[in-house]
Amino acid sequence: MGPKSVDKKRKTQVPESESDDELAGRLFDSVLSQSEDDSDFVASDDDEDDDQDDSASKGSQDDEDDEEDDDDALLSDDIPSDLDGEEALGKLLITDDEPEIEVPGVDPKRKDVGDEEKNYRIEKDANGGERYVYDEIEPGYDTDDTDAQGPANTIGDISLDFYDSYPHIGYDINGKRIMRPASGDALQNLLDSIEVPKGWTGLTDINTGNPLNLTDEELELVRRVQMGLIPNELHDPYPNTVEYFTSIEEKMRKTPLQALSSAPEPKRRFLPSKNEATQVMKLVRAIREGRILPYKPPEEGEREAEEEDEVHFDLWQNEEPQDANPMQIPAPKLPPPGYDMSYNPPEEYLPTKEEREEWEKLDPEEREKDYLPQKYGALRKVPAWSEMVKERFERCMDLYLAPRIRKNRLNIDPNSLLPKLPSPSELKPFPTVCQTIFRGHEGRVRSVSVDPSGTALATGGDDGAVRVWELLTGRQVWSVKLSSDEAVNTVRWRPSKDSFILAAAAGEDIFLMVPSHATVTPSLDQASRDILAAGFGYATHGQQQPVAVGKEPAAKWARPGTKLEDEGVLIRVTVRSTVKVIHWHKRGDHFATVSPSGQRSSVAIHTLSKHMTQIPFRKLSGLAQTAAFHPLRPLFFVATQRTIRCYDLQKLELVKAVQPGAKWISSFDIHPSGDNLIVGSYDKRLLWHDLDLSNRPYKTMRFHSEAIRMVRFHRGGLPLFADASDDGTLQIFHGKVPNDQLENPTIVPVKMLKGHKVVNKLGVLDIDWHPREPWCVSAGADGTARLWM
């Protein structure tokens, strides 16, 4: 039969498998053990079934013996070789089991098969009927069903962990056990780990328990999922953009396509563009001004052009009455009113109902007349009659009841509204003429200062030199070169008569010196040197405050060197930035310096007797411009660009903030009484402040065409103050502060002094007063200093 022939074909291939190693035989044994285990599931209820099983088992043993005999026959020397020919091979393969072909084209008749060779058995079903149960066919390597899969496990979602203690792993569709596949030994695992077969994953199928092998397509799918890619590699995530508008297509042709980006959308896409708003406002402004006209259809534009071409002139627009002459053409008179304008016109002038409706339908500008004739029986029946009478009556009532007031016209002289100021001749003395000109500096003279005795004048300029002059004669008596690179920005005398000490600033260095002068006696010179040298002894004995480690000191006090010491320069103080302003305290032991570019250390207070420098402010709200001590009280004023702040040095707190209202403060000075303040600014204004009245200016004056550089009060008790401007002039004022607080200060401009030349838009840079006389000294950008008397 068929199954038997299959067994024979399979047996012919067994010897080839025996040529392999022992591992192939072990795998084959496991398959066989599985077939033997399957036979255990044939159940019997009666003893007869047991007998049948015994007979079947005996029959199977006999079959096995026959197969062994067949195998021996095949393994004998009777197997033909290739040289024997195909006939011998055909005879060997033909057996008695094959049917004989009698008629061509007709299926051959098979021989009768006994019960022992049947591949089925007869059993009884539940109703007592007979049913045929066929044996299962195990597919082998030599069968046509090489792709047949193993039995499907029907345990569902139940985990295989529950079958760890059993030899099987589940049940197939027929309810038979599916035995657990054999696991390889250590050598097999080692070989599997070394020689990895194609498609090996190291995983186990949860349904069958067999090693899970994946194809190349499945492995590629797993790899793409792990990398976060689209599983289908044929899908294009970035297809070419299909444009729908011609303008966009043209734009895309001109510019290359930009790659797509996953960056967040920029802020400019959902915020209004300021640039576009500016462009729109320009267009709106142009439309309002008539530079851009709105769009009009061509027909309307042509009609307006035709109307503009038709120019009409009014010949009698400015006509004046003239005598009759042939050349005079009088203006045509307006026609008299016709019958249609009468309150009682004839019947033929009255419109019909159709005419009235047609007139109402027309636009006002298309109507021939602005009115329609109407008929009234009497004049008093005209609608305006009643209103006219009422208006006339109310007008008469207004004239009768309205009060009569005679308005007096005021004839006021504008000059009488001005305050009565005293005559300048009554306010003398004040400087009026230039008495002495001091020449010698190369470049601009930046600063001047008169000593407390009033006999010497100190100047500093762009040449880096400090010069001392006799005030009355203009003769230079002493000079020293402080720096060859930096200009001398300011010079100030120590305000005490017991010494003759001058302070000058060049760059970041402050020099303290004792100049030579005819009025300086040896005792005065020695006293001045002792005052300057006292600070070195104070620092030597360790009484000075220590400086924190790693922190730069506010200033360095040292001797300038042998060359400068021989010329009278005894001390050099080095700060962190360029010094522009020096202001002495009235007692002469402290002086303040201002460095506008120094930020936090822009304002510094120096103590002469201790050689110590302090930074009073941790932070300033603005750039410091200048600073000054109060003449009577322990107050300190600091001016920034727009504000002047007053601090109490004892309580260390802010007392007042003065707001002059200037754009940029250049300088300020405090009145000797301490209650008033004058401020000069670069925006050409001079401001007077009453500190007891308000933090706003009491009076604002504009007498200059350029910036004001310096303002100064007279310190000798005279009611004078002056300002210096870049226009090359000095303005002298009479400023009297009364003792009575109920009276306002008297401020009178008395003289404008001209003499300095303007160089590079710079005029007068500094000014100072004589300590007793009504004299002032000015420093100009033209390289001269002038004494005004």
TrEMBL record:
Compositionally biased spans, kind Basic and acidic residues: 107-120
One annotated GO molecular function: ribonucleoprotein complex binding
Database matches in InterPro entries: BOP1/Erb1, BOP1_N_dom, WD40/YVTN_repeat-like_dom_sf, WD40_repeat_CS, WD40_repeat_dom_sf, WD40_rpt
Gene Ontology CC, one term: PeBoW complex
Domain of life of the source: Eukaryota
Residue ranges of every copy of the BOP1 N-terminal domain listed in the record: 163-431
Gene Ontology BP term (one): maturation of 5.8S rRNA from tricistronic rRNA transcript (SSU-rRNA, 5.8S rRNA, LSU-rRNA)
Disordered: region residues: 1-120
Biased composition (Acidic residues): 35-54, 62-87
Pfam hit, one: BOP1NT
Chief location: nucleus
Subcellular location: Nucleus, Nucleolus; Nucleus, Nucleoplasm
WD repeat intervals: 438-479, 764-789
Key words, A-Z: Nucleus, Repeat, Ribosome biogenesis, rRNA processing, WD repeat
Subunit note: Component of the NOP7 complex, composed of ERB1, NOP7 and YTM1. Within the NOP7 complex ERB1 appears to interact directly with NOP7 and YTM1. The NOP7 complex also associates with the 66S pre-ribosome.
Record function comment: Component of the NOP7 complex, which is required for maturation of the 25S and 5.8S ribosomal RNAs and formation of the 60S ribosome.
Similarity comment text for this entry: Belongs to the WD repeat BOP1/ERB1 family.
The name this protein goes by in its record: Ribosome biogenesis protein ERB1
High-level lineage: Eukaryota, Fungi, Dikarya, Ascomycota, Pezizomycotina
